[in-house]
Amino acid sequence: MTSVNAGYANPYANYGSAYARAAATQPSLATTLANEDASATSNAATNLTLSDAARAQLANASGLKDFSTVTAETRVGLDKLYAAAKVTGPLDATGQPTVDLTSFDRRALFAVAANNGGKFTSDEQSIAAYELDNRFNAALAPATATAKLTGDVGTIYAAALTYLDGASGEEKATAAWAAKREAVVKGIQATQQNPSTAPSGIANDPVAAYLAQYPDGGGTPAPQDFSSVAKAVRSALDAQAKAAGAIGKELVFDPGRKTGQLADLSNIDNRSLSAISLNKDQLFSAQESFAAKKELDSRNRASILEALKQSQSSGDPTKLSLGILNTYSAMSDEERLATNWTPALRDTAVQSYKSTTSLLSMLKGG
User: Rg (Cα) of the chain, in Å, rounded?
Assistant: First the structure.
C-alpha cells in the first residue's frame, strides 16, 4: 500500500480555513451567500467561489446537518477509531495508516481533508484526502475496464461526472470542484465527437490524470482476503442475532416468517454478501446463504433496470449495454461467481453495444 505522509498533496487543504472563516463571521447561510462576492474580493487566494449550482444546493440543504456539527461528530469519530485501534495518530512510523476511514461518508472526509474549523492535524487531512482519492479512483475503475471492452472513453468521463455531482454543497462550493467539473464536461463533449480517443490538453482534467497513472484502471487498495471478509460479515450477523435476542426475538432470513426479527442485509456490501452466498468456509447456514444470494440478485436487477431507465430517458439504446458492462466491471471475481455473471454474459453485452453503436452510426449517416 502507498504510504500516506505529511507530504501527500492534499487538494482540499486551503478550503477548510476559508469555509471556517466564513462560518465564524457570518451568522447565517443566507448572509454568507449574500456577502460571498465581497469577501471573495478581499481574499481571492483561498476564499470559496460559489457557482450558481452550488448556491442553489447550499440554499436547499436545510434538511442536512450543519457542517460544523458534521465536523464535530467526525472529530469524535476519529478519536474513537484511535482508541479502538490503540493508537495515538493516523499514521505509523512508516507512514502507513493506522485506522480505516472507509466508514466515514464523503462529507465527513471533506471536513477532515479541508481541516474545517481547524480541528484536524495535517496527517489526518492527508489520510482523508487519500481516502477521497481512493473513492474517485473506485468510481472510475469499472468505467475504465468497460472502456477497454467497448473502445468508448466517454464512459470514463460520464463516471467522473456522476462522482463529482455526488459531492456535498461544501465541496461543490470550492474552486477545485468547479474546475474539475468544467474539465470533465469538456471531456464528455470531446468524446462525443471522438469516443475512441481520450482528449488531451484540457486543464484540470481529473480523468486524464487518472488515466496517466492507471491506464488499465485500478488505483484502489488491494481487496481484503476473502476469508477475512467472511469472518467479518459472520460477526456482523452474529451482532444482529444478539440484538434480536436481547428483545426476545430470533433473527430470521425469510421475509415470509411471521415471527422473529428479519435480518437487515441492506448495509452489507456486495463482496460480503458473496461470502455468505458462496459459503466457502462453511460459516453460514443455508438460510443465510439463500438470503444473501437473493439480496445480490435484487441489487443486480436494480442496476440493470436503472441502466434501462437511462437508456429510455436519454433515447440512447447503448446505455443499457454500458450499464450492464459497468456493473460487471465493478464486481469482484467472487461476486461474479455468486451471481453467475459469466464472461459469456459480458461478451454478449459488448457485442450488443458494438452492434447498436454501428446501427446508430449508419442511421446518422456516419
Answer: 23
Rounded to 5°, angle at Cα 199 from 195 and 204: 135
Average pLDDT, the chain: 86
3 is a domain residue: no
Quote the CA–CA distance of 43 and 203 in Å, as a whole number: 24
Do 163 and 285 lie in one domain? The reply is: no
- CA pair distance 161, 98, nearest whole angstrom: 32
Query: pTM value?
Result: 0.77
Give the separation between CA 22 and CA 292, rounded to whole angstroms: 47
Residues 328 and 307 in one domain: yes
Beta-carbon neighbour count of residue 112 at 10 Å? Answer: 29
208 near 198, Cβ under 8 Å? yes
Rounded Cα distance between 55 and 138, Å, is 28
DSSP 175-230: HHHHHHHHHHHHHHHHHHH-TTS-----TT-HHHHHHHH-TTS--SPPPPPHHHHH
Q: Is the same domain home to 101 and 144?
A: no
- Residue 85's pLDDT band, with cuts at 50, 70 and 90, is very high
If you count them, how many residues does the chain have?
366
Total count of domains within the chain: 3
| Shared domain check, 72 and 116 | yes
For residues 116 and 155, state if they share a domain: no
- For 165, the domain range is 136-213
12 with 110: CB under 8 angstroms? yes
